[in-house]
């Protein structure tokens, strides 16, 4: 009889442990970020910055093309010294354009990172608050594609949207 009681107690203990299993949830963080109004303004600011850099590249390329065309039109009349000087100018300008394009790409990435970081932080903080409030042990970001398989879990998009005071149905997809 004692063995049966011990067995029952052990069984109930295992049952209690299994019912306190990890609580899982998921969210498409990209959709949440797109639904946040701050993302639209950040996108506009980022686009304006991109356009400014693009205009500068176009201006440099136009000047480069003009120098090439001028050289081609007048090279027959140039002395060897002037030809070499003009060729070097054109070559230097091409290298400056390439260097500027490379620097502009890095600048654009840093700029976009700086304007999106506060938005991402706000979203992640809201996810953390919801996860703690609803006792989730793990929240997976399904937009990153890292989760290859999972059992059913709760989608907390609506809860986090509510936490951020987003309008219902504001979920934006690509």
Q: Order the strands across the largest sheet as they lie in space.
A: 2-1-3
Number of helices: 5
Q: Gyration radius, to the nearest Å?
A: 30 Å
Structural class: mainly alpha
Helix content: over 70%
The rough form would be described as rod-shaped
Percent in strands: 5-15%
- Low-pLDDT stretches: 4-19
Give the helices and strands as they follow along the chain.
Answer: HEHHHEEH
- Mean residue pLDDT: 85
- Report the count of strand segments: 3
What distance separates the N and C termini? Answer: 64 Å
The biggest sheet, with number of strands, parallel, antiparallel or mixed sense and barrel status, is: 3 strands, parallel
Q: Any overview of this molecule?
A:
By secondary structure, the protein is mainly alpha-helical. It has five helices and three strands, in the order H-E-H-H-H-E-E-H. The chain has a three-stranded parallel beta sheet with strand order 2-1-3, with no helix packed on it. Helix 3 packs antiparallel against helix 4 and helix 4 packs across helix 5.
């Amino acid at each position: 009889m004692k063995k049966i009681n011990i067995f029952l107690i052990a069984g109930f203990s295992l049952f209690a442990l299994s019912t306190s299993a990890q609580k899982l949830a998921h969210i498409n963080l990209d959709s949440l970020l797109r639904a946040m109004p701050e993302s639209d303004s950040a996108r506009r600011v980022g686009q304006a910055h991109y356009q400014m850099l693009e205009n500068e590249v176009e201006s440099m390329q136009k000047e480069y093309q003009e120098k090439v065309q001028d050289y081609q039109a007048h090279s027959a009349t140039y002395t060897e010294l002037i030809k070499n000087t003009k060729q070097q100018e054109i070559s230097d300008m091409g290298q400056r354009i390439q260097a500027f394009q490379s620097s502009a790409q890095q600048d654009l990435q840093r700029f976009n990172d700086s304007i999106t970081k506060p938005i991402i932080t706000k979203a992640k903080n809201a996810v953390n608050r919801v996860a703690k409030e609803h006792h989730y042990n793990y929240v997976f970001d399904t937009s990153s594609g890292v989760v290859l398989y999972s059992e059913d879990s709760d989608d907390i998009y609506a809860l986090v949207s509510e936490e951020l005071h987003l309008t219902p149905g504001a979920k934006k997809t690509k």
